[in-house]
Write a structure and sequence with these properties.
This protein has 371 residues and is α/β, with parallel strands linked by helices. It has two domains: 2-85 and 150-219 and 307-365, FAD/NAD(P)-binding domain; 93-143 and 222-305, D-Amino Acid Oxidase, subunit A, domain 2 (D-Amino Acid Oxidase, Chain A, domain 2, 2-Layer Sandwich). The protein is built from nine helices and 18 strands. A hairpin with a 2-residue loop joins β9 and β10. α3 packs across α9 (336-347). The longest helix has 24 residues, at 59-82. The structure holds flavin-adenine dinucleotide. Flavin-adenine dinucleotide binds next to α1, α2, β12 and β16.
Length: 371
Amino acid sequence: MSTDVVIVGGGVIGLSLAWQLAGQGRSVTVLDKQQTGQEASWAGAGILPPGHLPGARTSFDQLRALSVDMWKEFSEQLLSETGIDNGYRHCGGLTVTLGDDSCEPYRAEWTSEGVELADLDGEGLRDYEPKLTTKVEDGFRLPDLCQVRNPHHLQALAKACRQRGVDLQCDQPVEEIIQVDGNISSVKTRSRSLTADQFCFTAGAWTGQLLNAAGYSLPIVPVRGQIVLYRTEVPLIRHVIEVGKRYLVPREDGRLLVGSTEENAGYEKINTDLAIAELQRFAIQLIPSLKSAHVEKTWAGLRPMSETGSPFLGLLPGTENAYVAAGHFRAGLQTSPATALVMRQLMCGEQPSLDLKEFAINMTHVVEPTS
Ligand SMILES: Cc1cc2nc3c(=O)[nH]c(=O)nc-3n(C[C@H](O)[C@H](O)[C@H](O)COP(=O)(O)OP(=O)(O)OC[C@H]3O[C@@H](n4cnc5c(N)ncnc54)[C@H](O)[C@@H]3O)c2cc1C
């Protein structure tokens, strides 16, 4: 089988890129080891922080800020192409100080980027969220923080890809990467071999493992995050509330996500009693009325963390047709629209909208093949 582009990994990054490329008339096949959109992209909380492109200093901040500018229209386009509402909502966020977790560093970061925020004392915070504990005395509101419902977004993306002619092949783990004269000529799964002009590896936390056999040592490791999902009759809060790296994310239907942990536990995608109890303690401390709320579900996901903290976006060195877009760690949902845009531009020979130098893969990431 042959196609213009093979994308390996159908999470939010692979599917968003496939959608972009198919929109340019490219024939695209996405291979996934299972159903698409079942890993980190499904597990994430869907927080979409704000951004301000003119004030964004680092390349990563620019990737986030450019994505912020794209999310609304992207969601509307997915809705019109598929009829699926991905849950993109302009809900706003509160970042607060609780115990040892001060909101000050976050306040300084947003202010220096030029993102709109409003400082609030305890009373001001509770005017927005009356159920917030009286232990919180300091924080700020980010009016432009948004959210998306990951499973809905992934369903919309998969359907939109199919409608644009993308061939989504599920239960097809790529096991072998065939190189000819430095370039990649095909990838093999147990049952098929696919040739293509270009390849892009978007296998999240598995990308390093996958490329190792082809002679690339990409430092991307899994970092486990656990989530508790509460279900209440009516929504208790409206804003996403963040305390350091932990958060509450309310959905319109009364569901409320509590996250998350950062654990180096290899590929063990499980919940632990300790982490779940700690997340529940955190949630009840912040919103005491959650004490009587029903826990509907818990889950874990594996964030793809790169050595640099930023994703790898670009060509594999030594090749002219093999690309990587992986390692988005805690920010793969929020940065997916701009990631897909710049990768499409790169793969179509256009000038990318952002400078991708800081995301490049260099020769220090190239090792001898393990076999
Ligand atoms: C608990 C938690 C909360 C999070 N919250 C947020 C948040 O609020 N906002 C945010 O922006 N981000 C969040 N993230 C991070 C975000 O989910 C990730 O950065 C993002 O999903 C990475 O997307 P991906 O497509 O690279 O990887 P994945 O979604 O993991 O997709 C990789 C795909 O590759 C496939 N694959 C792997 N190996 C192979 C192979 N050999 N052959 C074929 N296919 C293969 C997998 O099956 C999978 O479908 C969170 C993550 C977690 C775990």
